[in-house]
Amino acid sequence: MSRIAFRPEHVRFKHRARVAVELAVKKRILEKPDLCERCNLPQEPCRDGRSRIQAHHHAGYDQPLNIRWLCVKCHAAEEPPLPLKTHCPVGHEYTPENTYISPSRQIDRRCRECARIRDRVRQPFRKVKNVS
Ligand SMILES: [Zn+2]
Ligand SMILES: [Zn+2]
Question: What is the distance in A from the centroid of ligand 2 to the CA of 100?
Fold first, then answer.
């Protein structure tokens, strides 16, 4: 099985997901525990003071805050996260042309085709309004 993990896009999302977790911890949206969620063993911090607990993106890097906190050992033993979704919930492919990435959050992918369909549904109402 060829892994998608080495595709540059995946690397970009991996980096963004890490940054998103760091930010969420800073803002206290997420709390970094001292215990590993898998082995339940308390983890002494490294000599440089950094925690040995790492965020594991089990659901994929496009869900940056959907994580488990694991020690380094357990993290290495876990299955790698799911590859990025290739299609939107309705089934349109996330091609570069069809993908809108929010410039502020850099990780939310929106399907442009879905946005177009939503616009098309709204259009008739607008036209009726203009005529009257
Ligand atoms: Zn562990
Ligand atoms: Zn779509």
Answer: 11
- What whole-number distance in Å separates Cα of residue 127 and Cα of residue 46? 64
Domain edges within the chain: 1-84, 85-132
Distance CA 17, CA 128 (A): 44
Q: What is the mean pLDDT of the chain?
A: 83
Q: Is 54 helix (H, G, I), strand (E, B) or coil?
A: strand
Residue 32 Cα to ligand 1 middle (Å): 14
Greatest pairwise CA separation for the chain in angstroms: 73
The answer to whether 102 and 108 are in contact (CB under 8 A) is yes
Cα of 110 from ligand 2 centre, angstroms:
8
How far apart, in whole angstroms, are the C-alpha atoms of residue 114 and residue 48? 48
Say if pTM beats, i.e. exceeds, 0.70: no
Cα atoms in the 13 Å half-sphere on the side-chain side of 12: 9
What is the per-residue pLDDT across 22-65, written as a single tens digit (0 to 9) for each?
Answer: 999 999 999 999 899 999 998 888 888 888 899 999 888 888 89
